[in-house]
Design brief:
Layout (H helix, E strand, L loop, with lengths): L2 H6 L3 H6 L2 H11 L2 E7 L8 H30 L12 H5 L1 H26 L3 E6 L8 H17 L6 H27 L25 E5 L8 E2 L10 E7 L7 H9 L5 E5 L20 E5 L11 E3 L4 E3 L6 E3 L5 E4 L11 E3 L6 E3 L17
Antiparallel strand pairs: 1-2, 3-4, 3-5, 3-13, 5-6, 6-7, 8-9, 9-10, 10-11, 12-13
Length: 375
């Protein structure tokens, strides 16, 4: 500030005796603000038109609060345990995430539209012009700024509009609870409590008993067809996607379709060229059958299908985010956001039928980040 301005600045004792309106006037003048006019939307408080406008604004806040409560209800009470497609209850399970988005979106919309409506229909129309200048924050500036903020709150008349104040407080509180639950709920809830059959830790390749045979099956486009795979069906350098099949499922259209649709079932069956040097992962040296290797098709980044294979380089590519896995080196990630190797399925040939079978399930989780994966 200039010396002339310093001389006009009241002392701390004088500031303490000034009213809020006087402090506002001083603060505006000190900052070079010229208040052209401030016109309330309703010059006469308490009119029917004002009450009607208040109820309209409060209705949006109430909608935000109710939608927030609905979000909490969906999050805690809606069926959220995994149900496979075409299983009883799968329709309601499939609606869980859309309903979360719908209710949370309505809550945000209600609060947002309510705030905009309040600003446009109830706040006084004010026009002020300010000359910008540089300067520090002296005690004078601090107290006048605080007075300006308090005056803005008072002039907004939110204090006397109890219906809008309570509805906004309710909507904001419920919305805050919803956002908090959404943020930390997944960290608190233990998926193991909802996984009685171990579906999270296993895939469709798991045997029910030691004698059961789980064959490698082609997907022909017709879920009723059962076409199994022999080693000679895959040419050197070739690959195809296979799914699990059990003889107990033959003729059961529901089970046959379920095996094709379960998200952790797809496997890339790859036959390398003869003599190709391969580095095998520790503990998985016998998971392949000759030149045939079977890797989960589910990318370990975000679960997209790793459906592109380069014969010359031995790379599996995920088209979603460009992660690349080196099949010549136990399908470890060599490019892109994926940080974990593709799980390998142990395979062999059934001596009775000559078809390829899985020796067991994957020994590690399939897909992206896992809720109980050890480092």
């Amino acid at each position: 500030m200039s010396d002339q301005q310093d001389k006009k600045t009241p002392t701390d004792a004088e500031l303490a005796e000034l009213s809020r309106d006087e402090l506002v006037t001083l603060g505006l003048a000190a900052d070079g603000v010229h208040l052209k006019h401030r016109d309330p939307h309703f010059p006469v408080p308490g009119t029917r038109a004002e009450k009607r406008t208040e109820r309209g604004v409060a209705a949006w806040f109430i909608l935000g609060a109710l939608a927030g409560l609905a979000f909490l209800g969906v999050y805690f009470a809606w069926p959220h345990e995994y149900v496979a497609p075409d299983e009883p209850g799968s329709f309601w399970y499939d609606l869980h995430t859309p309903m979360l988005g719908l209710t949370l979106g309505l809550s945000i919309t209600g609060i947002g539209v309510g705030v905009i409506a309040y600003a446009k229909k109830l706040l006084p129309h004010e026009v002020a012009v300010q000359d910008r200048h540089d300067g520090g924050s002296a005690e004078f500036d601090k107290q006048t700024s605080a007075a300006l903020l308090a005056d803005s709150g008072a002039k907004s008349e939110i204090g006397r509009r109890s219906l809008i104040r309570r509805s906004l407080l309710g909507a904001g509180t419920v919305f805050g609870l919803g956002v908090g639950v959404f943020a930390v709920g997944g960290l608190v809830r233990n998926p193991k409590a909802y996984d009685a059959d171990g579906a999270l830790a296993t895939s469709g390749w798991k045997k029910k008993d030691a004698k059961e045979k789980v064959f490698l099956r082609r997907d022909t486009g017709n879920p009723h067809d059962v076409v199994l795979v022999r080693p000679e069906d895959v040419e050197p350098g070739g690959f195809e996607t296979v799914f699990p099949f059990r003889e107990s499922e033959r003729g059961n259209d529901h089970k046959l379709l379920q095996a094709l649709r379960r998200s952790d079932n797809p496997v890339m069956l790859i036959r390398l060229r003869p003599g190709q040097p391969v580095t095998k992962r520790k503990g998985q040296a016998d998971f392949n059958f000759g030149d045939l290797y079977a890797y989960s098709k589910v990318c370990t980044h975000l679960g997209c299908p790793t459906s592109l294979f380069e014969q010359q380089t031995g790379r599996l590519l995920c088209p979603c985010h460009q992660s690349q896995f080196d099949v010549f080196n136990y399908a470890k990630p060599i490019f892109g956001p994926a940080t974990r190797s593709l799980p390998q399925l142990p395979i062999t040939v059934d001596p009775e039928t000559g078809f390829l079978v899985a020796r067991g399930d994957f020994i590690e989780p399939v897909g992206p980040a896992y809720w109980e994966r050890k480092p």
